[in-house]
Amino acid sequence: MRHPILLTLCVTGAFALSACDKKSTEDVDRAFQDVNVIDESNLNDVMLSAADPNEAVAYFQRATAQDSDRIDLQRGLAASLVRAKRTTESVSAWRKVTAHEDATNADRVNLADALIRNNDWAEADKILDSIPPTFETFKRYRLEAMIADSNQEWEKADSFYEIAVGLTTRPAAVMNNWGYSKLTRGDFPGAERLFSDAIRQDKSLFTAKNNLILARGAQGNYALPVIDTTQIERAQLLYTLGLSAIKQGDTAIGKGLLRDAIDTHPQHFEAAVRSLRALEENVAN
């Protein structure tokens, strides 16, 4: 009489163990799934920031092919295409992102950025106009300023640049853009001030240093400003200043600056040598 009871207990115990094993396996799978999600998220961040842009594109293309509805992967692909300077493809990718049901205003700003990179300023302007004015970000106002510049709407450009500068802790690049806007308008003192501000914010920004030289040269000021430069940078700035002097009609000063550039450069400065030779041959003729 005891054998059936024992058999029943054993069978019940087996089912219980099976259920426990199943539950344990599910818990382990779930734990590994969570780890995989974290690892994948970290990998996505690495691919977006540190990886070669074209490798990142290939990674996100594979990822979106496997899970085409995930907007984070679509964003990764679009951002990678921008980094890889594949502008036409990046516009298509950001269009797909903005068509997603979970798209945000930040995604629409990124689409406008891709459109500007693809030289489609008019549509970029329309996209930004469709975004509520309450959505205020540095990138949005930087793009608004660039579009206002392209339309020669100077007051709007200045207003947008000023707002953009106030929305970032690293304003050097946008100050440089704003200065270049002033330079193209012929406001050379205003441009010089903004380039100087940009260099104070980021001493490594050579573009702002070169633009500062252009602004000073346009005012007939051919003295190098007191800024931190390497020897090569100093030679290049002297070269820019020499060309600026020649453009202003101050040929003798320009020739002297070209010679200074050649003497300052630690290696052979082919561009300056060629410019000086052409200038001297032109004078001789």
3D architecture notes:
It is a single chain. With 285 residues, this protein is mainly α. It is 78% helix and 0% strand. It is built from 14 helices and no strands. It has helices at 2-49, 53-66, 71-83, 87-99, 105-117, 121-129, 138-150, 154-166, 172-185, 188-201, 206-218, 231-247, 251-264, 270-284. The N and C termini lie far apart (126 Å). This is Tetratricopeptide repeat protein. It comes from Roseovarius aestuarii. InterPro entries: TPR-like_helical_dom_sf, TPR_rpt.
Mind sketching the topology for me?
Layout: H1 2-49, H2 53-66, H3 71-83, H4 87-99, H5 105-117, H6 121-129, H7 138-150, H8 154-166, H9 172-185, H10 188-201, H11 206-218, H12 231-247, H13 251-264, H14 270-284
Q: What share of residues are in beta strands?
A: under 5%
What's the order of the H and E elements? HHHHHHHHHHHHHH
CATH-scheme architecture of the domain at 19-103: Alpha Horseshoe
Roughly what percent helix? over 70%
The number of helical segments is 14
Q: What is the CATH domain class of the domain at 19-103?
A: Mainly Alpha
CATH topological fold name of the domain at 19-103: Serine Threonine Protein Phosphatase 5, Tetratricopeptide repeat
Shape: elongated
Q: Which class do the helix and strand fractions yield?
A: mainly alpha
pLDDT < 50 runs, ≥5 residues: 1-20, 28-38
Q: N-to-C terminal Cα separation, in Å?
A: 126 Å
- Main beta-sheet annotation: none
How many strands in all? 0
User: What is the radius of gyration?
Assistant: 30 Å
Mean pLDDT across residues: 87
Pfam families: TPR_6
Protein name: Tetratricopeptide repeat protein
Organism: Roseovarius aestuarii
InterPro entries: TPR-like_helical_dom_sf, TPR_rpt
